[in-house]
Amino acid sequence: MRLNNLAMPRLSASSLNLAPTDWFDDAACKDADTDVFFPVSESQADAAKAICAVCPVREECLEYALEVRPGDGVWGGLTATERHRLIRRRQKAARKARESRSAA
Length: 104
Ligand code: SF4
Known about the structure:
Elements: H1 46-53, H2 58-68, H3 80-103
Bound molecules: iron/sulfur cluster.
The site of iron/sulfur cluster has 14 residues, from helix 1 and helix 2.
């Protein structure tokens, strides 16, 4: 994956004001068609997800996307909608954990 033209990370690290991360070099999508990671609809994300499924840095990629919130595209095997749902689930779980601790 090239940092200036990231297939998956279609954003450059510099545009995000982030230092390049080592895991980019191991991305399974580094030579993939960028368009694959920008499906027209969520239902057309299977090709990108298939690449992500065998990517050795999927976890790192997903956490990166959850942090920087690039908006669109498939990152870490999840579409933007799926990432949004994951963020909501994590927020809900964290809230419940806080509530449980304060109730104890
Ligand atoms: S998880 Fe998917 S989008 Fe992320 S680096 Fe791997 S292949 Fe690319």
